[in-house]
Amino acid sequence: MNVIVRVAVSGGAVSGGAVSGEVESRSRAARRSSESAPYELSDFSRVRKFDAHVHLNVEDPTLPDLARENGFELLSINADSPDFPDLLDQRAVAAALAKDDPARIHWATTFSMMGFGTRRWLGRVTAGLAEAKAEGACAVKVWKNIGMTERDADGRLILLDHPVLEPVIDHARSLGLPVIGHQGEPHNCWLPLEHMTTDSDRRYFERHPHFHMHRWPDRPSYEDLIAMRDRFLTTHPRLQFVGAHMGSLEHDIDRLAGFLDRFPRAVVDLASRMSHVQCQSLRDHEHVRAFFIRYQDRLLYGSDMTFNAHTDPVRFRRVAPAIWVSDWRYLATAESQRVGSLRADVPGLALPRDVIDKVYCRNALRVYAISGDGC
Ligand SMILES: [Zn+2]
Protein backbone atom coordinates (compact mmCIF):
# COMPACT_ATOMS: atom_id res chain seq x y z
CA MET A 1 0.00 0.00 0.00
CA ASN A 2 1.40 3.39 -0.95
CA VAL A 3 -0.98 6.02 0.32
CA ILE A 4 0.01 9.59 -0.46
CA VAL A 5 0.00 11.54 2.79
CA ARG A 6 1.34 15.06 3.10
CA VAL A 7 2.92 15.20 6.53
CA ALA A 8 1.44 18.04 8.54
CA VAL A 9 2.84 17.53 12.01
CA SER A 10 5.77 15.71 13.49
CA GLY A 11 5.28 12.24 14.88
CA GLY A 12 6.31 13.27 18.37
CA ALA A 13 7.84 15.88 20.63
CA VAL A 14 4.85 18.13 20.17
CA SER A 15 3.94 19.64 23.53
CA GLY A 16 2.30 22.72 24.95
CA GLY A 17 -1.12 22.36 23.33
CA ALA A 18 -2.69 23.90 20.24
CA VAL A 19 -1.02 27.32 20.39
CA SER A 20 2.58 26.14 20.51
CA GLY A 21 1.68 23.43 17.97
CA GLU A 22 0.48 26.16 15.61
CA VAL A 23 3.64 28.24 16.16
CA GLU A 24 5.76 25.18 15.54
CA SER A 25 4.02 24.27 12.30
CA ARG A 26 4.27 27.91 11.11
CA SER A 27 8.01 28.01 11.75
CA ARG A 28 8.35 24.62 10.07
CA ALA A 29 6.45 25.91 7.06
CA ALA A 30 8.75 28.97 6.95
CA ARG A 31 11.79 26.73 7.18
CA ARG A 32 10.56 24.50 4.38
CA SER A 33 9.73 27.43 2.11
CA SER A 34 13.46 28.30 2.04
CA GLU A 35 14.38 24.74 1.00
CA SER A 36 14.56 23.39 -2.52
CA ALA A 37 11.35 21.56 -3.42
CA PRO A 38 11.42 17.81 -2.86
CA TYR A 39 11.58 15.37 -5.73
CA GLU A 40 8.59 13.31 -6.79
CA LEU A 41 8.40 9.57 -7.03
CA SER A 42 8.43 9.94 -10.82
CA ASP A 43 11.87 11.61 -10.61
CA PHE A 44 13.44 8.38 -9.33
CA SER A 45 14.64 6.91 -12.61
CA ARG A 46 15.87 10.16 -14.16
CA VAL A 47 17.97 11.46 -11.22
CA ARG A 48 21.59 10.31 -11.15
CA LYS A 49 22.16 8.12 -8.08
CA PHE A 50 24.92 6.12 -6.44
CA ASP A 51 24.39 2.98 -4.35
CA ALA A 52 27.54 3.05 -2.23
CA HIS A 53 27.13 -0.39 -0.69
CA VAL A 54 26.43 -3.49 -2.76
CA HIS A 55 28.17 -6.84 -3.14
CA LEU A 56 28.69 -8.16 -6.67
CA ASN A 57 30.06 -11.56 -5.79
CA VAL A 58 29.74 -13.24 -9.17
CA GLU A 59 30.28 -12.02 -12.71
CA ASP A 60 26.57 -11.76 -13.48
CA PRO A 61 25.04 -8.84 -15.39
CA THR A 62 21.76 -8.71 -13.43
CA LEU A 63 22.65 -6.05 -10.85
CA PRO A 64 24.81 -3.94 -13.22
CA ASP A 65 21.94 -4.01 -15.75
CA LEU A 66 19.44 -2.96 -13.08
CA ALA A 67 21.75 -0.14 -12.04
CA ARG A 68 21.88 1.06 -15.64
CA GLU A 69 18.10 0.87 -16.01
CA ASN A 70 17.46 2.72 -12.75
CA GLY A 71 20.14 5.40 -12.98
CA PHE A 72 22.56 4.10 -10.35
CA GLU A 73 26.32 3.85 -10.12
CA LEU A 74 27.45 1.10 -7.77
CA LEU A 75 30.20 0.57 -5.24
CA SER A 76 30.73 -3.19 -4.85
CA ILE A 77 32.45 -3.95 -1.57
CA ASN A 78 34.63 -7.03 -1.07
CA ALA A 79 34.33 -8.45 2.44
CA ASP A 80 36.14 -11.12 4.45
CA SER A 81 32.83 -12.88 5.11
CA PRO A 82 32.38 -16.66 5.33
CA ASP A 83 29.15 -16.26 3.32
CA PHE A 84 31.04 -14.69 0.38
CA PRO A 85 33.38 -16.30 -2.21
CA ASP A 86 37.12 -16.53 -1.72
CA LEU A 87 38.69 -13.05 -1.53
CA LEU A 88 40.75 -13.50 -4.70
CA ASP A 89 37.55 -14.45 -6.56
CA GLN A 90 35.68 -11.45 -5.15
CA ARG A 91 38.46 -9.17 -6.29
CA ALA A 92 38.64 -10.69 -9.77
CA VAL A 93 34.84 -10.38 -10.21
CA ALA A 94 34.74 -6.76 -9.02
CA ALA A 95 37.70 -5.74 -11.19
CA ALA A 96 36.22 -7.48 -14.27
CA LEU A 97 32.76 -5.89 -13.85
CA ALA A 98 34.33 -2.47 -13.27
CA LYS A 99 36.47 -2.89 -16.38
CA ASP A 100 33.32 -3.64 -18.42
CA ASP A 101 31.60 -0.45 -17.26
CA PRO A 102 34.11 1.81 -15.50
CA ALA A 103 31.77 4.79 -15.38
CA ARG A 104 29.14 2.82 -13.46
CA ILE A 105 30.80 0.07 -11.42
CA HIS A 106 33.35 0.88 -8.71
CA TRP A 107 34.73 -1.43 -6.07
CA ALA A 108 36.39 -1.67 -2.68
CA THR A 109 38.98 -4.28 -1.84
CA THR A 110 39.66 -6.00 1.48
CA PHE A 111 42.24 -8.34 3.00
CA SER A 112 42.30 -11.73 4.67
CA MET A 113 43.06 -12.12 8.37
CA MET A 114 44.53 -15.58 7.75
CA GLY A 115 48.07 -15.64 9.16
CA PHE A 116 47.51 -12.39 11.07
CA GLY A 117 50.57 -11.09 12.87
CA THR A 118 53.24 -12.82 10.80
CA ARG A 119 55.64 -10.83 8.65
CA ARG A 120 54.42 -12.69 5.57
CA TRP A 121 50.83 -11.67 6.39
CA LEU A 122 51.76 -7.99 6.52
CA GLY A 123 53.72 -8.20 3.25
CA ARG A 124 50.86 -10.04 1.55
CA VAL A 125 48.24 -7.57 2.76
CA THR A 126 50.15 -4.41 1.84
CA ALA A 127 51.08 -5.80 -1.59
CA GLY A 128 47.45 -6.86 -2.11
CA LEU A 129 46.19 -3.34 -1.35
CA ALA A 130 48.63 -1.79 -3.81
CA GLU A 131 47.66 -4.30 -6.52
CA ALA A 132 43.95 -3.69 -5.91
CA LYS A 133 44.48 0.05 -6.13
CA ALA A 134 46.31 -0.44 -9.44
CA GLU A 135 43.36 -2.55 -10.66
CA GLY A 136 40.96 0.28 -9.83
CA ALA A 137 39.83 -0.28 -6.21
CA CYS A 138 38.75 2.98 -4.58
CA ALA A 139 38.53 1.90 -0.92
CA VAL A 140 39.35 -0.90 1.51
CA LYS A 141 36.80 -2.66 3.69
CA VAL A 142 37.42 -3.76 7.27
CA TRP A 143 34.69 -6.20 8.24
CA LYS A 144 33.04 -7.04 11.54
CA ASN A 145 35.10 -10.21 11.93
CA ILE A 146 37.69 -7.85 13.42
CA GLY A 147 36.46 -7.35 16.95
CA MET A 148 33.92 -10.17 16.89
CA THR A 149 35.39 -13.45 15.65
CA GLU A 150 39.07 -13.19 14.59
CA ARG A 151 41.54 -14.35 17.23
CA ASP A 152 45.31 -14.06 17.48
CA ALA A 153 47.73 -16.96 18.10
CA ASP A 154 47.01 -16.70 21.86
CA GLY A 155 43.27 -16.97 21.33
CA ARG A 156 42.56 -13.32 22.10
CA LEU A 157 40.02 -11.42 19.96
CA ILE A 158 41.74 -9.10 17.49
CA LEU A 159 40.44 -5.56 17.89
CA LEU A 160 40.52 -2.83 15.27
CA ASP A 161 43.02 -0.77 17.25
CA HIS A 162 45.47 -3.71 17.41
CA PRO A 163 48.98 -2.33 16.71
CA VAL A 164 49.59 -5.01 14.03
CA LEU A 165 46.78 -3.48 11.95
CA GLU A 166 48.30 0.00 12.10
CA PRO A 167 50.76 -0.37 9.18
CA VAL A 168 47.91 -1.76 7.05
CA ILE A 169 45.75 1.27 7.77
CA ASP A 170 48.69 3.63 7.19
CA HIS A 171 49.39 1.88 3.91
CA ALA A 172 45.74 2.25 2.81
CA ARG A 173 45.91 5.96 3.64
CA SER A 174 49.17 6.40 1.74
CA LEU A 175 47.50 4.79 -1.29
CA GLY A 176 44.59 7.22 -0.96
CA LEU A 177 42.13 4.44 -0.14
CA PRO A 178 39.36 5.39 2.33
CA VAL A 179 38.61 2.73 4.95
CA ILE A 180 35.07 1.38 5.06
CA GLY A 181 34.60 0.05 8.57
CA HIS A 182 31.86 -2.31 9.62
CA GLN A 183 32.40 -2.66 13.34
CA GLY A 184 29.82 -4.01 15.67
CA GLU A 185 26.29 -4.80 14.63
CA PRO A 186 22.89 -3.16 15.03
CA HIS A 187 22.14 -2.51 18.68
CA ASN A 188 19.43 -5.15 18.37
CA CYS A 189 22.14 -7.81 18.08
CA TRP A 190 22.69 -7.66 21.84
CA LEU A 191 18.98 -8.02 22.62
CA PRO A 192 16.86 -11.18 22.75
CA LEU A 193 14.97 -11.77 19.48
CA GLU A 194 11.64 -10.73 21.00
CA HIS A 195 13.00 -7.33 22.07
CA MET A 196 14.46 -6.35 18.67
CA THR A 197 12.91 -3.27 17.05
CA THR A 198 12.76 -4.58 13.45
CA ASP A 199 11.62 -7.88 11.95
CA SER A 200 14.55 -7.78 9.51
CA ASP A 201 17.10 -7.92 12.37
CA ARG A 202 15.07 -10.64 14.07
CA ARG A 203 15.21 -12.75 10.88
CA TYR A 204 18.93 -12.09 10.29
CA PHE A 205 20.03 -13.04 13.80
CA GLU A 206 17.76 -16.05 13.88
CA ARG A 207 19.57 -17.25 10.73
CA HIS A 208 23.04 -16.18 11.92
CA PRO A 209 23.12 -17.22 15.59
CA HIS A 210 26.94 -17.07 15.63
CA PHE A 211 26.62 -13.28 15.16
CA HIS A 212 23.73 -12.87 17.63
CA MET A 213 25.75 -11.45 20.51
CA HIS A 214 22.92 -11.81 23.01
CA ARG A 215 23.73 -15.55 22.88
CA TRP A 216 27.43 -14.97 23.55
CA PRO A 217 27.85 -13.00 26.77
CA ASP A 218 31.60 -13.74 26.79
CA ARG A 219 32.05 -11.72 23.55
CA PRO A 220 32.52 -7.93 23.50
CA SER A 221 29.51 -5.82 24.35
CA TYR A 222 28.00 -3.31 21.94
CA GLU A 223 29.65 -0.48 23.86
CA ASP A 224 33.04 -2.28 23.79
CA LEU A 225 32.92 -2.44 19.98
CA ILE A 226 31.80 1.16 19.53
CA ALA A 227 34.57 2.29 21.93
CA MET A 228 37.09 0.16 19.97
CA ARG A 229 36.11 1.86 16.70
CA ASP A 230 36.24 5.30 18.29
CA ARG A 231 39.70 4.65 19.80
CA PHE A 232 40.85 3.58 16.35
CA LEU A 233 39.57 6.81 14.77
CA THR A 234 41.16 8.89 17.53
CA THR A 235 44.54 7.41 16.60
CA HIS A 236 43.92 7.94 12.85
CA PRO A 237 42.47 11.47 12.75
CA ARG A 238 43.39 12.08 9.08
CA LEU A 239 41.91 8.85 7.80
CA GLN A 240 38.94 9.10 5.43
CA PHE A 241 36.60 6.69 7.23
CA VAL A 242 33.22 5.42 6.07
CA GLY A 243 31.17 3.85 8.85
CA ALA A 244 29.18 1.13 7.10
CA HIS A 245 25.59 0.64 8.26
CA MET A 246 25.40 4.07 9.93
CA GLY A 247 28.49 3.30 11.94
CA SER A 248 26.41 0.78 13.95
CA LEU A 249 24.72 3.76 15.62
CA GLU A 250 21.54 3.21 13.58
CA HIS A 251 19.25 3.04 16.62
CA ASP A 252 20.01 6.56 17.83
CA ILE A 253 20.54 9.42 15.38
CA ASP A 254 21.51 11.73 18.26
CA ARG A 255 24.39 9.42 19.07
CA LEU A 256 25.30 9.24 15.41
CA ALA A 257 25.29 13.06 15.30
CA GLY A 258 27.70 13.06 18.25
CA PHE A 259 29.96 10.61 16.39
CA LEU A 260 29.96 12.75 13.23
CA ASP A 261 30.72 15.87 15.27
CA ARG A 262 33.57 14.15 17.07
CA PHE A 263 35.19 12.69 13.94
CA PRO A 264 34.98 15.31 11.17
CA ARG A 265 36.67 13.04 8.57
CA ALA A 266 34.09 10.30 9.08
CA VAL A 267 30.98 9.72 6.99
CA VAL A 268 28.49 6.86 7.19
CA ASP A 269 26.50 4.84 4.69
CA LEU A 270 22.86 3.91 5.23
CA ALA A 271 23.13 0.34 3.96
CA SER A 272 20.59 -2.10 5.39
CA ARG A 273 19.51 0.32 8.11
CA MET A 274 16.62 2.27 6.57
CA SER A 275 14.06 0.57 8.81
CA HIS A 276 15.99 1.79 11.88
CA VAL A 277 15.79 5.35 10.59
CA GLN A 278 12.10 4.87 9.81
CA CYS A 279 11.52 3.49 13.30
CA GLN A 280 12.85 6.80 14.69
CA SER A 281 10.95 8.99 12.24
CA LEU A 282 7.72 7.29 13.27
CA ARG A 283 8.44 8.63 16.77
CA ASP A 284 9.67 12.07 15.66
CA HIS A 285 9.50 12.82 11.96
CA GLU A 286 10.91 16.36 12.12
CA HIS A 287 13.85 15.35 14.28
CA VAL A 288 14.98 12.73 11.77
CA ARG A 289 14.42 15.11 8.87
CA ALA A 290 16.50 17.79 10.61
CA PHE A 291 19.28 15.23 11.16
CA PHE A 292 19.49 14.49 7.43
CA ILE A 293 19.56 18.19 6.59
CA ARG A 294 22.21 18.97 9.19
CA TYR A 295 24.48 16.07 8.17
CA GLN A 296 23.70 16.19 4.43
CA ASP A 297 27.43 16.09 3.55
CA ARG A 298 28.15 13.07 5.76
CA LEU A 299 25.58 10.47 4.66
CA LEU A 300 25.88 8.07 1.70
CA TYR A 301 22.98 6.12 0.29
CA GLY A 302 23.60 2.36 0.17
CA SER A 303 21.34 -0.69 -0.02
CA ASP A 304 23.59 -3.69 0.79
CA MET A 305 22.12 -5.65 -2.12
CA THR A 306 24.14 -8.81 -2.66
CA PHE A 307 24.32 -10.99 -5.76
CA ASN A 308 25.81 -14.42 -5.01
CA ALA A 309 26.20 -17.57 -7.10
CA HIS A 310 22.92 -18.97 -5.75
CA THR A 311 20.93 -15.72 -6.21
CA ASP A 312 17.84 -16.16 -8.38
CA PRO A 313 18.14 -13.47 -11.08
CA VAL A 314 14.40 -13.47 -11.81
CA ARG A 315 13.47 -12.75 -8.20
CA PHE A 316 16.37 -10.30 -7.87
CA ARG A 317 15.11 -8.31 -10.86
CA ARG A 318 11.78 -7.95 -9.07
CA VAL A 319 13.02 -7.24 -5.55
CA ALA A 320 16.01 -4.94 -6.11
CA PRO A 321 14.17 -2.09 -7.89
CA ALA A 322 11.39 -2.32 -5.28
CA ILE A 323 13.96 -1.72 -2.51
CA TRP A 324 15.53 1.21 -4.35
CA VAL A 325 12.13 2.78 -5.05
CA SER A 326 10.98 2.24 -1.46
CA ASP A 327 14.08 4.00 -0.11
CA TRP A 328 13.58 6.85 -2.60
CA ARG A 329 9.93 7.13 -1.61
CA TYR A 330 10.96 7.44 2.03
CA LEU A 331 13.90 9.84 1.69
CA ALA A 332 12.90 11.96 -1.30
CA THR A 333 9.10 12.22 -1.11
CA ALA A 334 6.40 12.80 1.50
CA GLU A 335 4.50 9.69 0.47
CA SER A 336 3.59 7.12 3.08
CA GLN A 337 4.32 3.43 2.60
CA ARG A 338 3.84 0.20 4.48
CA VAL A 339 7.13 -1.03 5.97
CA GLY A 340 6.83 -4.74 6.66
CA SER A 341 9.81 -4.88 8.99
CA LEU A 342 8.13 -2.32 11.29
CA ARG A 343 4.55 -3.43 10.61
CA ALA A 344 3.66 0.24 10.19
CA ASP A 345 2.85 2.91 7.62
CA VAL A 346 5.82 5.26 7.40
CA PRO A 347 5.55 8.78 5.94
CA GLY A 348 8.45 9.95 3.78
CA LEU A 349 10.93 12.63 4.83
CA ALA A 350 10.57 14.73 1.65
CA LEU A 351 14.15 15.93 1.96
CA PRO A 352 15.12 18.96 -0.16
CA ARG A 353 16.54 18.15 -3.60
CA ASP A 354 19.99 19.47 -2.71
CA VAL A 355 20.14 17.08 0.24
CA ILE A 356 18.96 14.13 -1.85
CA ASP A 357 21.54 14.93 -4.55
CA LYS A 358 24.31 14.80 -1.94
CA VAL A 359 23.12 11.71 -0.07
CA TYR A 360 22.32 9.88 -3.29
CA CYS A 361 25.40 10.80 -5.28
CA ARG A 362 27.70 13.73 -4.63
CA ASN A 363 28.96 12.56 -1.24
CA ALA A 364 29.98 9.15 -2.64
CA LEU A 365 31.81 10.71 -5.58
CA ARG A 366 33.71 13.02 -3.20
CA VAL A 367 34.56 10.41 -0.56
CA TYR A 368 35.69 7.78 -3.07
CA ALA A 369 37.40 10.36 -5.31
CA ILE A 370 35.43 9.20 -8.34
CA SER A 371 35.59 11.59 -11.23
CA GLY A 372 32.80 11.94 -13.71
CA ASP A 373 30.47 14.54 -15.02
CA GLY A 374 29.09 15.24 -11.53
CA CYS A 375 25.64 14.75 -10.04
ZN1 LIG B 1 27.39 -5.26 3.10
Report on this structure.
By secondary structure, the protein is of the alpha/beta class. It has one domain: TIM Barrel. Helices cover 43% and strands 12% of the residues. The chain contains 14 helices and eleven strands. The strands form three sheets. The protein has a five-stranded parallel β-sheet with strand order 4-5-6-7-8. Helix 2 packs parallel to helix 13, helix 4 runs parallel beside helix 6 and helix 11 crosses helix 12. The chain starts with 16 loop residues before the first helix and ends in an 8-residue tail after the last helix. The N terminus is likely disordered. The structure holds zinc ion (ZN). Zinc ion binds next to strand 1.
Unreliable segments of 5+ consecutive residues: 1-19
Ions, cofactors and other bound molecules: zinc ion
Largest sheet: 5 strands, parallel
- End-to-end gap: 31 Å
Tally of individual helices: 14
Q: Determine the strand fraction and express it as a percent band.
A: 5-15%
The CATH architecture name reads: Alpha-Beta Barrel
- The shape, in one word, is globular
Strand order of the largest sheet: 4-5-6-7-8
> Which value, in Å, is the CA radius of gyration?
21 Å
* The named CATH superfamily: Metal-dependent hydrolases
Quickly count the domains.
1
Helix content: 40-55%
> Got a strand count?
11
- What's the level 1 CATH class? Alpha Beta
CATH level 3 topology: TIM Barrel
What structural class is derived from the secondary structure elements?
alpha/beta
What are the secondary-structure elements, in order, as H or E?
A: HEHEHEHEHHEHHEHHEHHEEHEEH
What is the residue-mean pLDDT, rounded to a whole number? Answer: 90
